[in-house]
Design goal:
The chain is α/β, with parallel strands linked by helices. The protein has 16 helices and 8 strands. Helix 1 crosses helix 2, helix 3 runs parallel beside helix 12 and helix 12 crosses helix 14.
């Protein structure tokens, strides 16, 4: 179980109460009021779960509330490029967000964007390697506690092939309605800049990602703030083409471990904690992380991880044997006042992260199919020009460690 920042039990998947049109006989006025109260309470619960995910909700909360009222099982769209190792900003965050959406009654479609990774030149554009990487990432999420009921992993190359006429008609219509400059402004979604020399394939990418929203029948786009521009493109296209505009729930982006790293990046092993890091790797990286005393804003990555990973996952943060926090606000105040030392923060943060990641190590060590998948994945990275020997040396085989008594997502 994990708890949202609003105190909502995110594993409570009580279905939205509905009145039965054939059951009106024998129901008193008081009964009707009680039933209406139950519906409102459940609608509020679902809304709070959704908003607990988002740093920003576009356009407004009323639009989200209307969607939840109209649909008991709306569709949420998320996606990822299979392009290398998975860091905790991607791994843990997606588990929590997907589980909250499932608890809120959503059908979640996770787009394994293999064609997109190929367009973006990831893993040398080798589709077989990209697909293997996607399989490895999905396996990590599943063994880490992501809900399986209500979640579909869909490989873009396969799904587009099944309905190619529909998909490419959408892409062409989106391209026809937008200028080249408007599309290039979305290049951030690929980890690129408008100033980069983009290939023709990368120009196609935003139009295709925009088309994904409608191709998958998404009511909600749930992605990071770095995907905001293309999600806004989808809303603009929906308005112009007479379609229902998707609600945009954009989650917070976690910084890297080093000073000045606004975003955790898998291309920088020293600035990232990976889901398959050994316990020793996690301890070493956190020990070297930037963690200025008394600083609690976004420039302190260790405080950021406590706020956005540890508290949402556990509902508490234990710093020392005699000091634990059930409220992030109280922890933040104590750290700002100098009552929590950076070294104590780092040790407890590493311990908490290792407890979350331990099931991944256990799974890939003891499950023979998973172990083989990891071996093939590691070999794939080694054959890619995008990864150096130094990068791969960070990925050591992990020994099985004692499970922490702390609660984790179930």
């Amino acid at each position: 179980m994990f708890v949202t920042k609003d105190g909502v039990n995110a594993t409570d998947s009580t279905p939205l109460a509905r009145s039965d049109g054939n059951a009106s006989a024998g129901i008193t006025a008081d009964d009707s009021r009680l039933e209406t109260s139950d519906v409102i309470a459940d609608l509020t619960r679902r809304f709070r779960l959704c908003r607990s995910i988002a740093e920003e909700c576009v356009q407004d909360d009323e639009e989200l509330m209307r969607l939840l009222h109209d649909k008991s099982h709306p569709v949420a769209y998320d996606g990822f490029e299979p392009s290398g190792r998975m860091h905790v900003a991607q791994g843990i965050t997606k588990i929590m967000n997907v589980n909250r959406l499932v608890a809120a009654g959503f059908e979640v479609k996770i787009w394994i964007a293999d064609w997109f990774a190929q367009l973006n030149g990831k893993l040398d554009g080798d589709l077989d390697r990209i697909r293997l990487c996607g399989d490895y990432m999905v396996e990590i999420w599943r063994c880490s506690g992501m809900e399986e009921k209500g979640v579909q992993f869909l490989r873009s190359s396969e799904e587009i092939g099944k309905r190619s006429d529909e998909y490419w008609t959408l892409v062409m219509d989106i391209a026809r309605r937008n200028t080249l400059n408007r599309v290039v402004r979305c290049s951030q979604i690929m980890g690129r800049s408008e100033k980069n020399d983009l290939s023709a394939a990368q120009i196609m990418y935003p139009c295709m990602q925009c088309a994904d929203v409608f191709f998958l029948g998404a009511d909600v786009c749930q992605m990071g703030m770095d995907q905001r521009k293309v999600n806004m493109l989808a809303r603009e296209y929906a308005e112009e083409s007479g379609r229902r505009k998707p609600v945009i729930l954009s989650h917070h982006m976690l910084p890297g471990l080093q000073s000045g790293q606004d975003k955790m990046s898998k291309s920088d092993p020293k600035g990232s904690v990976f889901m398959d890091d050994s316990a020793e790797d996690v301890e070493r990286k956190i020990a070297k992380a930037y963690c200025p005393p008394r600083v609690t804003d976004r420039t302190n990555p260790c405080v950021e991880y406590v706020k956005h990973l540890i508290f949402p996952w556990y509902g508490l943060f234990q710093v020392t044997e005699d000091r634990s926090y059930k409220s992030y606000d109280q922890f933040e105040k104590d750290y700002a006042d100098g009552n929590v030392h950076p070294k104590d923060l780092k040790v407890s943060l590493a311990r908490s992260l290792n407890a979350i990641l331990e099931p991944v190590r256990h799974h890939f060590e003891h499950d023979p199919i998973a172990r083989d998948l990891r071996a093939r994945f590691t070999e794939t990275l080694g054959s890619s020009s995008a990864y150096s020997a130094a990068d791969l040396s960070q990925k050591s085989d992990s020994s099985h460690t004692t499970r922490s008594p702390l609660r984790r997502v179930t």
